[in-house]
Amino acid sequence: MTIDSISAASPLRGTERPVSGAESVAPQPASRAPAATVLETAAAVRGAEPAPTLEQVNQAVSDLNKSPLAKSQGLEFSIDNDSKRTIVKVIDQTTKEVLRQMPSPEALQIAKALDNTKSLLISQTA
Description:
Blueprint: H1 35-46, H2 54-66, H3 68-73, E1 75-79, E2 86-91, E3 98-102, H4 105-121
Antiparallel strand pairs: 1-2, 2-3
């Protein structure tokens, strides 16, 4: 068993199988992934992109809220000020009532309480 390198220039192996009986099938040529896919995969393996800044996230949320598709579907996006988590609300178009929020207000309160408790329990630094 051998392991080929991602950057190897050798063509991919085809999947040819012998066919029994009178039927014969022409072998399919092996398809190669485009070079961009290989480069993107290699970049993804090296490391993640830096996290976006709060300003970039706020701008993206603003752009999402302005989109006609989000408005027509009754979606509203926001950022929780305390936890800095993204909040998605599904809003009834006629009554403007919040039908569903993800994460729920209760889940946000639990997360905030756990963050406060964690800082109290772990007060030492290495």
